[in-house]
Design goal:
Elements: H1 3-18, E1 23-28, H2 34-46, E2 50-53, H3 56-63, E3 79-84, H4 90-101, E4 106-112, E5 115-117, H5 119-126, H6 131-169
Antiparallel strand pairs: 1-3, 1-4, 2-3, 4-5
Helix pairs in contact: 1-3, 4-5
Length: about 170
């Protein structure tokens, strides 16, 4: 079998992984120990992020003609892909959090919802909270005025309730 035929399934696998992905983050994992890498994989897997190491040449072929094509210029060194199809910020956020404890992990670049981000852009993305956190904050801010209004109404009702018996006790003229 020719070498090209052997490599074709790997290129197709990568293309399948990045297809319809919300976020594709390229990370340099050089210098991580096996234990650190295992912990990283476990964390990513638990949060629905696919993480796999591929050869740069294979990723280069798979990225051609896709929104991830801009990542080709960053394919130097030992790289891995972190891909999420559900949460656009999850890979960057989880990798940056892991990188704080393990500085050898380097965020290289990313394509999130069709837009290319360099290392600084990926760091900025990592600071965006998850969708669930953003939704809960939105819900909290929507409920706050209603809750404050309800408290004011309750205080008025309590105040009026105290005033009514006092009026009844007062002699009528």
């Amino acid at each position: 079998m020719a070498k090209v035929e052997q490599k074709k399934p790997v290129v197709e696998e990568i293309a399948g992984v990045i297809e319809d992905a919300d976020a594709v983050v390229l990370v340099n994992y050089s210098g991580l120990t096996v234990e650190q890498d295992t912990a990283l994989r476990k964390t990513l897997r638990e949060n629905g992020v696919a993480y796999k190491v591929y050869k740069n040449t294979m990723m280069n072929f798979a990225f051609q003609g896709t929104p991830c094509e801009e990542l080709c210029k960053d394919l130097k060194g030992t790289n891995a892909l972190a891909v999420s199809k559900d949460d656009a910020t999850a890979p960057a956020r989880l990798l940056a959090e892991f990188g704080k404890k393990n500085p050898k992990l380097e965020l290289v670049s990313a394509v999130v919802e069709g837009n290319y981000y360099d290392a600084e852009g990926v760091q900025a993305l990592s600071k965006i909270p998850s969708r669930e956190v953003l939704l809960s904050r939105l819900l909290g801010s929507m409920q706050s005025p209603i809750a404050n209004f309800a408290r004011v109404l309750k205080q008025i009702a309590e105040k009026d309730g105290e005033a009514a018996p006092a009026e009844e006790a007062a002699p009528a003229e």
